[in-house]
Write a structure and sequence with these properties.
Helix content: 55-70%
Largest sheet: 2 strands, antiparallel
Distance between the termini: 52 Å
Shape: elongated
Number of helices: 11
Length: 238
């Protein structure tokens, strides 16, 4: 009897919490609708809060799980099945799913998928190292991840982004501006400094404005990731 009462109490609390969250969403939507009703942005904001955000999250999670299942099927013969049922993998899976629901960028979603796949495959890392990589992906931005991929395999990055290596000339500063033309150069410098501080790349930005690319990609084309950087990139890549 006590167990039944406790169960009903737990269910009631969940229902109440759900109602509170629903009311909160309605209140937020009403605020935007009321304050912005006289403008063209009122309706879109209401739609965003009411349906777009939750539906996009569910769709993102659904796509992620589907992609993960396909990849697992490809490597199923090498997977440590027993590891799936451990607390350690449950933690990684739960944290990855949570992160997927909070991030829309393709680069990050691919990284979280790779972490789960590579955790199931034979690897040299203990659980603390895997958790560190998982949290590091969360700390870095997409710009960081792009620069890191560029630093590890420059020519592969250029091919992927359809950039002709012979077109990259002049100072290293100008070269990076050409390669990462979508971003402000100071942002690129800050991101490189972050990666340098993490010990993931060996690019020293203090002389980046004076270094020249004498023969096309001779300087930029050198491998610029550290051993730690290589291990990190490999673990977040499938």
């Amino acid at each position: 009897m006590k167990k039944e009462i406790a169960t009903k109490s737990s269910i009631s609390k969940k229902i109440e919490k759900g109602l509170e969250q629903s009311q909160l969403a309605d209140n937020v939507k009403n605020i935007f609708t009321t304050l912005l009703s006289a403008t063209v942005v009122g309706g879109p904001f209401a739609n965003l809060i009411n349906s777009y955000i939750p539906s996009r999250r569910f769709l993102r999670l659904e796509n992620f799980v589907n992609d993960l299942a396909v990849k697992i099927q490809e490597v199923k013969d090498d997977i440590n099945v027993n590891y799936i049922e451990t607390e350690e993998f449950s933690f990684l899976f739960e944290q990855s799913i949570k992160s997927v629901s909070e991030n829309y960028q393709k680069e990050k979603l691919e990284a979280y998928k790779a972490i789960l796949i590579n955790s199931l495959l034979p690897n040299e890392y203990n659980e603390e190292q895997k958790e560190f990589y998982l949290n590091l992906v969360g700390s870095l931005t997409v710009i960081h991840l792009k620069i890191l991929n560029f630093a590890q395999d420059t020519f592969a990055y250029l091919r992927k982004n359809e950039i002709e290596p012979k077109s990259i000339t002049g100072s290293l500063e100008n070269s990076l501006k050409q390669i990462f033309s979508d971003y402000d150069f100071n942002t690129i410098i800050m991101a490189i400094n972050d990666l340098y501080q993490y010990g993931l790349v060996n690019i020293d930005t203090s002389n980046i404005r004076t270094m020249t690319v004498n023969r096309g990609m001779d300087i930029v084309g050198d491998k610029r990731t550290t051993e730690s950087g290589d291990k990190f990139v490999d673990f977040i890549t499938t």
